[in-house]
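Researcher: Before we compare anything, I want clean individual predictions. No alignment, no superposition, just each chain on its own. First chain goes here; please echo the sequence and then give the structure tokens.
Model: Echoing the first chain and its structure:
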Amino acid sequence: MIMRFVHIVLFFLGKYVMESNYLKTLIVVGKYGNITRASEILHVSQPAISRRIKLLEDQFGQVLLDRSGTGVELTAAGKIVADKAVQMLELEKELISGLTTVETNEKLTFACTPSFGIAHLPQIMRDFMLKSSASPDLLFHFDVPRKIIAGLNSEIYCFSVFEHTEGLNLTGLQTISLPGDEMVFVASPKLEISEEEIEIDDVLHHTLYGRHEGCCSRSLLEINLQNNGLSISSFERLIIYDDLHLLIDAISNGDGIAFLSKDVVAKELATGNLKEFKVAGFSLARNRSLVTPSNFVHSNITKQLTESIFDYFKAQPFCGK
């Protein structure tokens, strides 16, 4: 069986490629001359915009933006890259359009959170591929719950699994509850946090490695901090990583602490590379749901995928239509 798992393969191998999103970012920043405006248009945080531009600059070995003025401008090298990027993206659209005329396999667009993608999806997909007799085209997207819900409502995504806090609005969507997961603070043994349960004041002097706004783990952390009269800014220092692999590497090196899904760092906890600890009074449980659009009708492929998910979590057999 041949399946195209382009996005998921790149994600799990931990290889960092110059994706078209980074080129789109440079084009938008160059067009508007303002990172704040580009952030609003692309629905990406300003630090993420800056990181994408820095990655492109490292990739090409050239400064692409002139940041000396009140706004930003494309440098000579930046204009060359942006112009070629426009051509490349147009070719990409033509290629995709051309391929759609010859592709006959069933397509399934699956969205999930990065934590689910790292901790659970590989084994689920192995089971699915062994059981499935068909060869569907599968496209995977990793995003925060809010954006996944928007994609489901606009039918960009047809199938999703994500973790979420209580009160998330899933009105109008088909939902099936799955076993949730547990959040924990983790740190390298190098930091010598000896107690398994400590007070929040005992960790505020550490650097917090966190996820971007909208991520479920950050949302739950913010709720807990607010309940204690604190905020993210109460930590001595906050460093945001878009990539969970890089975040875990930083924590493993003893650079700070993080609030992560226990499933995501299970391997590091088992080997002793990381140590978990809990903060007194913190709520650690997150819900997890399988969510589809309101008018979604399961095909044989999505039934098989759902059954693989249920088998993995040892949930009830699938009885949908």
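Researcher: Okay. Second chain, same rules.
Model: Second chain and its structure:
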Amino acid sequence: MPLTALDYTSQAFENYNNQDLLGAITACDEAIKLNSNEEDAFSLRAQAKLELAHQNSSNYQDAIADFDTAISLLSLSQSHSMCASMFLGRADAKFFLTKYADAIADCNAAITLDPYSAVAFWYRGNAKQQLNDHQGAIDDFDQAIHLKKNNNPMVLFKILFNRARAKQQLNQHETAITDFNKVIELDSQDPLPLLGRAVSRSALEDHLGAIADCNKALALEPNMIDIILLRQHENRELGNYPAAIADCDRAIQLNSENVEDIRHVKNRLIEEYSIHQPHVKNKTQKTSSLWPVAGESDKTPLYGYHQEETCCRGCRII
């Protein structure tokens, strides 16, 4: 007896649950050949294609096409919660194509269908953050945490981490540190929250605290350039020139892109140290950007953790 569309769909779910994404897609293909309105097959194939796209950083458009069809079919069947899930899947794909406004629109649609979806607020907050709507992002992260009080620790890690980053952009460093503290409690083996807290401590002129965080982060990731250069900056602020120069040497050994900029910083440190003239800090200047341009000026610290890290730590629930 030949297999039906439902048989192939069931087979697809079994393959998907066994993490056989290609097998799931193939089975969905067969189901759709037999029934072009098989909403479950389109929904599952869209999700499987999205996960493959995340693995390969490509083919997001293929996933979006299936999400489009799944949303159309589910809208007709009045399946609100499943339709909301498809909007979120499509938002996730659009986020990775840097279509942030479109991702927000899909999150809005998901929230209309399911106003208690913590994931929808989380995803929307991520997209708002990319569009520099940092307060809007914070508000969405607040709501996501409120709705998911008994959260998976890794999900909570991602939401809190991104909320801390958004707060830094608004110079809310005290509350950013509070969020970083919670993130570090959830995962003490990740160097990025320690670097984030060090940046905020630096902005608050807690240079010893920033150096302590840098040391902890370097114990976890010894070759992370951003941490080494931030520690160099903090040592210079404290007048500890030998340590700052040593950090420059270490960064030069590891960095192939900004070697000349780092050498420029090192030479300036050597000059200051040789004439026994401590670096005089302009007390009116704060670190205005967490991602300064390397070598932009003599007053620009040559360090910074980058926006892409938000995506890999913060966008996906899977």
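Researcher: What stands out in the second chain?
Model: Residues 1-98 form a domain with the Serine Threonine Protein Phosphatase 5, Tetratricopeptide repeat fold (CATH 1.25.40.10). Additionally, The longest helix spans residues 39-56.
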